[in-house]
Amino acid sequence: MKAVLDHVGVAVQDVEQALAFYRDALGLQVQEIEEVPSQGVRAHFLPVGGAAIELLEGTAPQSPISRFLARRGPGVHHLTLRVDDIRAALAQLKTRGVRLVDEEPREGAEGALVAFVHPSAAHGVLVELKQARERGARLEVARLPFGDLQLTTLHDGPFKLDGGAMFGVVPRPLWEAKAKPDDRHRIQLAMRPLLVEAAWGRMLIDCGAGDKMGAKERDIYALDRRRTLDAALADAGLGAESIDVVLATHLHFDHFGGATARRSDRLVPRFPRARYVIRAAEWEDATHPHERNRASYLQDDFVPLQAAGVIDFHVGDDTIRPGVRVVRTGGHTGQHQIVFIESGGRTAVFVADLIPTTAHLQDAWVMGYDLFPVETLLFKKPFIREAIEREYLIVFEHDPQVAAGYIREARDGKRFVEQVL
Ligand SMILES: [Zn+2]
To answer: How far is the CA of 353 from the centre of ligand 1 (A)?
Structure first.
């Protein structure tokens, strides 16, 4: 069990006097005040580093806090340790004969699961275990008629990446309000390939991570392979053989790992009938990796396609099929491209890693993963302006909740997404 300190609860007789010390003298800030009438308690939360001090006052004479104060006077009331899996933690404690107050976890504030360990087992301290509620990725398949085309947002399951790397130079207090990291500093993401159906056939734009990763990498990236692209295609009434074209935005594993599959001891194209469309210069970069991008360009994801003779290289910005054209953004990789889908006077844009999630709408929120972050900024700034003014439907490849929507701008300049899918 890996436990981290979540907060220390301090029972106080007079919260104003307590704040005079904890807030005014120590210089801590009150982040939140929470009242739980059923427990007869009010709590002031003051963050300290990654944890918090929780000042607890009784609001009813018979509440647990009031009784604690009457019996013991003010002081440390409990400490709360956060664990990844509270049921496993309780089972582990039980096998060691630790006396528990709660054998089964119960629901705490903000949908967390909590359980108390008896103070006698913890040498006089009431210990609370807590498993924070994790909002997993929304994995749904949604169809949208789009002029003469049909767009379907698919998914290849959830995964996680380092929160700091996802937001580059943006300080953590700013980004963690939008994307809460887990205990390994990772944030929840999804992989969402887009299916375009037209008279000319079915195109997949990017194709997720696929299933070639070993256990160690699956753990690092929290790849959960229970519901993946095969299931998403099946939900759409399709299979791998239904796909005519697979178009790459770039060849990183979380975008193009799904292009190949292991069959017994061979690597083969995952979509047996498909042509794979790849930007020639991106192929050059991907097949000549250096120290900074080697972990993202996994040769098994794309080299077997060449041996199978299924690649159509395109040079520069181009129309790939009627209504589908690519535009190089650079930035994330030297040749990273986005896909414009145009039909019936409407425009949708598959923005890949230019705007990976709805938390990246402000111009300067550029990923630390990007090889050329200033290039990302130079493309992104006018692009978002254009997307707002011309009402492009933006397809977000990595957002854990939102598959597609319109970028709007409030009067104060704050941007948000009006979710469509
Ligand atoms: Zn990506």
So the answer is: 5
Contact 331, 297 (CB under 8 A): no
User: Which residues, at least 6 apart from 190, have a Cβ–Cβ distance to it below 8 Å?
Assistant: 137, 138, 139, 155, 157, 158, 159, 398, 399, 400
How many angstroms does the Cα of residue 74 sit away from the middle of ligand 1? Answer: 51
The helix or strand, by DSSP H or E, that contains position 307, with its residue range, turns out to be helix 303-307
Q: What are phi and psi of 36, to 5 degrees?
A: -120, 95
Distance 398 CA to ligand 1 centre (A): 7
Q: Check: CB of residue 10 under 8 Å from CB of residue 78.
A: no
CA of 32 to the centre of ligand 1 (A): 34
Buried b (16+ CB within 10 A) or exposed e, 346-361: ebbbbbbbbbbbbbbb
Sole residue written with tokens 């340790």: 81
Q: What is the pLDDT along the chain (421 residues), one digit of tens a residue?
A: 788 899 999 999 999 999 999 999 999 999 888 888 888 899 999 999 879 999 999 999 899 999 999 999 999 999 999 998 899 999 999 999 999 999 999 887 777 889 999 999 999 999 999 998 777 889 999 999 999 999 999 999 999 999 999 999 999 999 998 998 988 999 999 999 999 999 999 999 999 999 999 999 999 999 999 899 999 999 999 999 999 999 999 999 999 999 999 998 899 999 999 999 999 999 999 999 999 999 999 999 999 999 999 999 999 999 999 999 999 999 999 999 999 999 999 999 999 999 999 999 999 999 999 999 999 999 999 999 999 999 999 999 999 999 999 999 988 888 999 999 9
**Cα within 13 Å of Cα(296), Cβ side:** 19
Q: Which residues pair with 338 in a beta bridge?
A: 327
Q: How far is the CA of 356 from the centre of ligand 1 (A)?
A: 7
CA angle 79, 81, 82 (to 5 degrees): 145
Give the distance (Å) from ligand 1 centre to CA of residue 388.
23
Lookup: tokens for 324: 């589908």
How far does the centroid of ligand 1 lie from the alpha carbon of residue 35, in Å?
Answer: 41
CA 184 / ligand 1 centre spacing (Å):
19
Residue 369 Cα to ligand 1 middle (Å) = 9
Q: How far is the CA of 352 from the centre of ligand 1 (A)?
A: 7
- Positive or negative: CA dihedral 230, 233, 235, 238: negative
